[in-house]
């Protein structure tokens, strides 16, 4: 029978490599890639622990995720064996950690874990820069020491998975830049009408919760969350005299105000990017009503894109609870009553049902992103 301490056969090794590299190549989430890579390394060389550390230059630290849902771990950039490997660009094979000056004994005392033998292997990005390193600790074998062979295997794991790791890191970088730009754009639309503070952020979070409640997958819901902040981007083209008018708008002014929907659509709709396409639908349709009495097209029921129906609920719920130039914030009870009343009129009944089912989480978001009151100096 196979024991824990047997060395792997070539076939077993190939199976592990094939299994993990396929999974890693298909993974777009950095956290999951780090965990998969660590698992691959651990299985290939039968280590007790294996960690993939990534350099965060902005903070002068290394970070990692060792398990799903667990906070990321951070250590100073130059510390320990892994820090040494990253600084020199060379792998390390340590047979007896206790005899090595680079070993951080304090850490062992703190965690109650005894580090005996260690391998570290740096990852090199395509531009030749080091982006992080593997660290494997303690061999699960009779003699308990890592061998040259183990080091070669971990180098192999690093070269197989390193490219995927780099591409996921680039992808995350692009995605987070995109997110920031979108929020900034959305805020421009809102700030023009003095809908200050976290309105855009809250609408995004509410849309996300509603989407999940309606059965969207996690990534579909995240897509909507990124697109919904742009719903009022067309307000960029509406004059201040209308956006900031404290009183009721004249018919002519109101007609002009309504064009922020088509303007937003025209701004975003030409993009080939799926995200901006979705944002274009939302900008166009977030004032449509389930019963067909909305604007600009007077669309009805399912003819309104589901993104538009969800954003409508999120936007109105939030707008009613906030002070605007033309009105004070409503009490929560009054808002809830209106949301109920407008089920099947303004709003899609199924979205409202989810709204009520998810009300506690929506209120948590509302509390979490509450607008700060302006300070006395800002009022002066
Ligand atoms: Fe709007
Ligand atoms: Fe809005």
From TrEMBL:
It comes from the Bacteria. Pfam families: GAF (PF01590), HD_5 (PF13487). Residues 174-371 form the HD-GYP domain. This is HD domain-containing protein.
């Amino acid at each position: 029978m196979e024991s824990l301490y047997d060395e792997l056969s070539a076939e077993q090794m190939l199976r592990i490599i094939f299994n993990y590299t396929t999974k890693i190549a298909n993974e777009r989430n950095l956290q999951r890639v780090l965990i998969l890579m660590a698992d691959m390394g651990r299985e290939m060389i039968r280590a007790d622990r294996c960690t993939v550390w990534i350099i965060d230059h902005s903070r002068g630290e290394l970070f990692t995720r060792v398990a799903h849902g667990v906070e990321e771990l951070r250590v100073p950039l130059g510390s320990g064996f892994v820090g040494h490997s990253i600084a020199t660009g060379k792998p390390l094979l340590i047979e007896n950690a206790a005899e090595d000056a680079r070993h951080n004994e304090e850490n062992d005392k703190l965690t109650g874990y005894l580090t005996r033998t260690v391998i570290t292997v740096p990852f090199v990005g395509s531009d030749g820069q080091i982006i992080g390193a593997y660290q494997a600790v303690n061999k699960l074998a009779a003699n308990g020491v890592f061998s040259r062979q183990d080091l070669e295997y971990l180098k192999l794991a690093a070269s197989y998975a390193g490219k995927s790791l780099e591409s996921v890191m680039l992808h995350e970088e692009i995605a987070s830049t995109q997110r920031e730009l979108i929020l900034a754009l959305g805020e421009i639309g809102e700030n023009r009408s003095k809908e200050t503070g976290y309105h855009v952020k809250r609408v995004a979070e509410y849309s996300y919760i509603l989407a999940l409640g309606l059965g969207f997958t996690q990534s579909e819901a995240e897509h909507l969350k990124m697109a919904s902040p742009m719903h009022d981007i067309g307000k960029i083209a509406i004059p201040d005299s209308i956006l900031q008018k404290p009183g009721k708008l004249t018919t002519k002014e109101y007609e002009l105000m309504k064009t922020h929907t088509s303007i937003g659509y025209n701004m975003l709709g030409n993009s080939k990017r799926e995200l901006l396409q979705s944002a274009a639908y939302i900008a166009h349709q977030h004032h449509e009503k389930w019963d067909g009495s909305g604007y600009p097209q007077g669309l009805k029921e399912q003819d309104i894109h589901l993104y538009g129906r969800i954003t409508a609920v999120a936007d109105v719920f939030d707008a009613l609870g906030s002070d605007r130039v033309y009105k004070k914030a409503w009490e929560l009870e009054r808002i809830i009553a209106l949301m109920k009343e407008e089920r099947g009129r303004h709003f899609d009944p199924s979205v409202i049902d989810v709204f009520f089912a998810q009300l506690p989480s929506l209120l948590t978001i509302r509390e979490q992103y509450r607008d700060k009151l302006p300070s006395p100096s800002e009022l002066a």
